[in-house]
């Protein structure tokens, strides 16, 4: 598969832990949430999941698939002077509650990213935490998957908003290849 994203943009998407995910609510209002995400280089899609308690993201995607993710906080990444990146596209969210991650490698990868950034104040050894989470908090792992197809990207090198952003329309790029 050909990679269409410029390397600085790809670095931001792959190495940034969080993004600001925007959907459209039922009344047309844009709603933005901080999310942890995973970029699948094989499918070239951005994947996130939401707990059942926060199902509004998935419901909004089902009603209106137009979404965006803004990458502007690089805390925890090893990126040096990265650009701010805005990714726009369409998303899907199957009407399915995932309780077993064995057939969901993207959500497993997402969970591993979350595990790297979460810190707990519970003084339990890791094997006890796993037992508590699986047996007492299993509801936390009931997830709904959201997958975003990247269609347009804008980025501001050196986070310089006084300049026009650089842009890439992947739909146009793909049309030239076919």
SSE topology sketch:
Blueprint: H1 7-15, E1 18-24, E2 30-36, E3 38-40, E4 45-51, H2 56-63, E5 66-71, E6 84-92, H3 105-117, H4 126-135, E7 143-156, E8 166-169, H5 170-177
Antiparallel strand pairs: 1-2, 1-5, 3-4, 4-7, 5-6, 6-7, 7-8
Description:
This protein is an alpha+beta fold and 178 residues long. It is built from five helices and eight strands; from the N terminus they run αββββαββααββα.
Short description:
By secondary structure, this protein is α+β, with helices and mostly antiparallel strands. Helices cover 27% and strands 32% of the residues.
Keywords:
single chain; 8-stranded antiparallel beta sheet; alpha+beta; 5 helices; 178 residues
Order of helices and strands: HEEEEHEEHHEEH
For the biggest sheet, the summary is: 8 strands, antiparallel
Q: How many helical stretches?
A: 5
| Gyration radius from CA atoms, angstroms | 17 Å
N→C terminal distance: 13 Å
Shape: globular
Percent of residues in β-strands: 25-35%
Oligomer: single chain
Q: What percent of residues adopt helix (DSSP H or I)?
A: 25-40%
Low-confidence stretches: none
Count of strand segments: 8
**Arithmetic mean of pLDDT:** 81
Structural class, from secondary structure content? alpha+beta
